[in-house]
Amino acid sequence: MDGKTTRFFGMWLIRGILPLLVCWSGPLQAATVKARLVLLDKGNVASGSKNVPPSVLWLKPTHPDPSFVLPPGKFSLLQKNKMFSPHLLVVPVGSNVSFPNADPFFHNAFSLFDGKRFDLGLYEAGSMRSVVFSREGVSYIFCNIHPEMSAVVLALTTPFYSVADAAGNFQIAAVPSGEYELHVWIEGGQPTALNELTRRVRITNDSTDLGDIRSGTQKEQPHLNKFGRPYEPESKPVY
User: Fold this and answer.
1) Rounded distance, CA 60 to CA 93, Å?
2) In terms of CB atoms within 10 Å, which of 45, 97, 163, 214 comes out highest?
3) Average pLDDT, the chain
4) What is the dihedral angle through the alpha carbons of 69, 74, 189, 169, rounded to the nearest 10 degrees?
5) What is the band of 65 on the pLDDT scale with cuts at 50, 70, 90?
6) Partners of 181 in the β-ladder
7) What pLDDT is stored for residue 110 in this prediction?
8) The model's pTM
């Protein structure tokens, strides 16, 4: 084999093998991240911690990468039987969420919190309104007519998140190695207490167990109507 032929086969091998190495490098550098939510009552593990409230854990890369951003999508929060369904919705920032009214009466969905502030006003049975969740954050959503209705929309800029199962377990697959900021949201948790759970973590190319995330037991807080006043306890709207 002459020198020219040798160089040809050498370049062929390099060009053929390198793409395979690149393809294999992704999965080898990704981790399955796990964590557990443990609720505490006066410093002790709460007896009911095996049935945790709706909770979400997410990891924000400290060095943002466009390839880590999910495109906005279209989602729905159905209003039926005086309930929002689903109760918890996690969406990419910029997503459009529709609020179809499948009840035979009026609804008035609103949110006055930091995630996205909106008031859809009264709209009748069979109609629909929608909201674009254009900023990151948690939106607590209620109906101005029916105080028992509530939902949560969590808009994120990262695809690396997990909703806890009934036992409080989180699991996020295929997280690339690197530095992240860990965030946790627990329904009923006070913002100050939740902010204290935020911390930096490093993910390696092995399965990573972040251990127990300990938080006090959560209590449902009464909410006000869109005018900042309590709901009338025996209000019977004509809608």
Assistant:
1) 13
2) 97
3) 85
4) -70
5) confident
6) 60, 200
7) 97
8) 0.82
Q: Which residues pair with 183 in a beta bridge?
A: 58
Residue 136 in this model has a pLDDT that exceeds 80: yes
Round to whole Å and give the CA distance between 172 and 209: 10
Side-chain-facing half-sphere of 157: CA atoms under 13 Å:
14
Q: What is the 3-state secondary structure (H, E, C) of the chain?
A: CCHHHHHHHHHHHHHHHHHHHHHHHHHHCEEEEEEEEEEEECCEECCCCCCCCCEEEEEEECCCCHHHCCCCCEEECEEECCEEECCEEEEECCEEEEEEECCCCCECEEECCCCCCEECCCECCCCEEEEEECCCEEEEEEECCCCCCEEEEEEECCCCEEECCCCCEEEEEEEECEEEEEEEEECCCCHHHHHCCCEEEEECCCCEEEEEEEEECCCCCCCCCCCCCCCCCCCCCCC
Inter-residue contact 126 to 80 (CB < 8 Å): no
Taken in order of first residue, the domains within the chain and their CATH numbers are 30-69+159-218 (2.60.40.10), 70-157 (2.60.40.420)
Q: Which residue(s) pair with 45 in the sheet?
A: 40
* 136 burial type by CB count under 10 A (0-12 exposed, 13-18 middle, 19+ buried): middle
Residue 78 corresponds to which amino acid? L
